[in-house]
Amino acid sequence: MREIELTPKQKDLVLGVIGEPKSTFLEGLAGCGKTTVAVQRMLHLLDVGVRADSILVWVPQRSLGRPYVEALCRPTVPAGARVDVLSVDGLARRTLDLFWPLIAGPAGFADASQEPTFLTLETAQYYMDQVLEPFIEEGAFGDVTVPRNRLVSQIIDNLNKAALLGFAHGEIGARLIAAWSGPSSRERVYEAVQRAADAFRDYCLQHNLLDFSLQVETFTRYVWRRPECKAYLLRRYRHLIADNLEEDIAVAHDLLREWLEHAASALVVYDQDGGFRTYLGADPQGALALAELCTQRVTLDTSFVSSPAVQALSSGLLRVDGAAPRPTEEQLEQSLSFIQEHFHTELLRNVVDEVLRLTLDENVPPGEIAILAPFVDDALRFALMTEFERHSVPTRSHRPSRALREEPAVRCLLTLAQLAHPHWEMCPPRSDVAQALVQAIDGLDWVRANYLTEIRYVIKSRRPHLRTFAQLKPEIQERITFGLGTRYGDLLRWIEAYGAQPSLPLDHFFSKLFDELLARPGYGFHNDYDAAAAAANLIESVAKFRWALDVDDVDELGTRYVRMVEGGVVAAQYVRRGWRPAAQNALFIAPAYTFLTENRPVDYQFWLNVSSLSWGRRLYQPLTHPFVLTRHWPRERKWSEEDEFQAGQSMLRRVVLGLLRRCRVRVYLGISELNPRGRGERGPLMECVQRLLREASLLRAGRTREGGGV
Q: Residue 289 and residue 250: Cα distance in Å, rounded?
């Protein structure tokens, strides 16, 4: 966040901390300084002597707490001051650890004398996969054909939504059936979904396992409702700062509704155009209702991010009833550029050229540029990142729904783990070995890697082995080059030295491999932000998997983890600060929703595939429903095509506004006549753009890119 001087209105909000008004509901558009006020208010509380451990900063997800955590690292903050920055599940985890003996029995856990095991998303998927095995064998999900990992994640999502909304998990199937208007065969599938959810919940209770849903449900139903537990929390946290409440869940709003009555001071922050995480249970309507409980309601309406031209562009794109003012031609030329091509590959090439012009000719920091699309697949990600890497432009990318096995750095590490543990008798295919060598050895291309794998990778007695480079004929060594051969040889010697010792736990193995080899100059993880982040995430994932399973054999744990990842498990989100400052100076390539949930503005945005139907369309999930499983959907009403259309329009409006509120200078619209599959599309965002151009009379030939104008 850039440093800005507080306005008088903001200063009043920061200083009016204790006494009257006791609580403030602060709302406004993204970029108007709401989080800046909240951060400064936290620091002011510390300055006036409020104990750090009596302040609770409440955020919907850990990543949104970064501004507060980073502010606490400033030298002006009192030494040792530790303010808790928590989401609902973070608060639940802490209190469940503390009050476990009191609530384990009433909550239905089998053995209150044993400590609970808290599951990550990966470990929850692992156990759910075991529970689903008999259901899959009997064909319980008949006419629904989705990959097994998606089947697992959607049933887990249903359990999460039940906990987040505060209804019993036994109602999942009935709610889905009540809203279904298609063939009756789907009702039997929803019944199977309910039985699977019940079986998983029973398994967790029998083994003291707490997935996300059970953590939240146990906290809200048993910890919060127990008088001594509730009194402890109310006494400890006397000062509340709740940010981004529009992205938080319904039960979080329920808790705050009670907490506000007892807090010495409270600041509740609400983004008027937010609510991007509705597919994860966000309840912006419930958040807005908290305004009625606060003693003061304040609105900030001056953007410190978007230029007037970008603000005019947002009103022009989303004019529905004609009431919003039309942007002028000058404003459009200042805020909007087009990159139009016939083929998608040509579009990407021109996007890369324009980014290089900005970074190299105009000295725009790469961290001030974001390339966004409704979805980012492997082909798009690889094409862009390869080109930018070739021109030494740092990049980073993140896709929350991306399976662990799809991350090149993760796949590299898992393949090397199998090669370093031949006694596992897990033999990766040649293509994976070649990919691992490309990722691990800096400068090794696909042609040489494939050739090297063909002649050096062998499988003997069901065990994988790499042969040495020195044994190759001199002409073959020259073809691969001695420099690359030396790095390959060092990698092989490291694997051989590791194999001469007893096996380490898999997370220790990855740490050792990263530190002693892959992060060094000459190897692929050196100065690669995405690879380093993926490695750190993988290490944390493996460690939590090891803690969650009651298995002492490190080899058995290792093989179980690798098989789980090969099954397509989706990675949990891990947040750390160690690599963050450097990574923020990297160009960001991500889905639009991911960029929005990071809540970080940039100077320039490139929107790819503007004509795609995916803008404003939710991901098809046949076993769950983000709109039906809410508090606001009438139980007796069927979900219709009109509901789907209106939901898509609402999603598109939120996304477009959210993106433009987080853009300072200019938006580039990338349009290709043919999509990546070679087909023509005309999606809802493209219709908005064309209407805007018609109204402004700017749709003229030959002015798509010249001079940076429309």
A: 11
Side chain identity at 231, as an amino acid letter? A
Q: Supply the range of the domain harboring residue 385.
A: 308-401+581-708
User: Which pair of structure tokens corresponds to residue 159?
Assistant: 């359990």
User: 31 and 137: one domain?
Assistant: no
Do 692 and 623 share a structural domain? yes
**Taking phi first (over 0 means left), then psi (-120 to 50 degrees means alpha), and beta for anything else, what does residue 244 get?**
left
What is the DSSP secondary structure assignment for residue 88, as one 8-state letter?
H
CB 488 within 8 A of CB 452: yes
Other C-beta atoms closer than 10 Å to the C-beta of 467 total 13
Report yes or no: 314 and 307 within 8 Å, Cβ to Cβ.
Answer: no
CA distances from 694 to 77, 316, 581, 687 (A): 54, 11, 43, 11
Alpha-carbon gap, residue 296 to 372, rounded angstroms: 38
What are residue 691's phi and psi, to 5 degrees? -65, -40
Q: H or E element: which one contains 178?
A: helix 172-179
d(CA 240, CA 237): 7
Which residue has 């384990």 as its token pair? 104
Helices (H) and strands (E) in the chain, counts: 28, 16
> How far from the centroid of its chain's Cα atoms is residue 360's Cα?
30
Q: At what angle do helices 430-440 and 408-420 cross, to 10 degrees?
A: 110
- Phi, psi at 573, each rounded to 5°: -90, 125
User: What's the whole-model pTM score?
Assistant: 0.85
3-state secondary structure 221-267: HHHCCCHHHHHHHHHHCCEEEECCHHHCEHHHHHHHHHHHHHCCEEE
Residue 335 resides in a domain? yes
Residue indicated by tokens 């997370």: 507
The tens digit of pLDDT for each residue in 661-680 reads 999 999 999 998 888 877 88
Residue 292 is given by DSSP the state: G
Total number of domains in the chain: 4
The CA distance from 93 to 552, in Å, is: 25
The pLDDT of 425-435, averaged and rounded, is 93
Confirm whether 384 is domain-assigned. Answer: yes
Cα dihedral 104/105/110/114 (nearest 10): 50
Pull the structure tokens for residue 359. Answer: 């970074």
Instruction: Read off the pLDDT of residues 599-644 as tens digits, 9 standing for 90 and up.
Output: 889 999 999 999 998 898 888 888 999 889 988 888 889 999 999 9
d(CA 663, CA 370): 9
Q: Where does the pLDDT of residue 456 fall: very low under 50, low under 70, confident under 90, or very high at 90 and above? A: confident
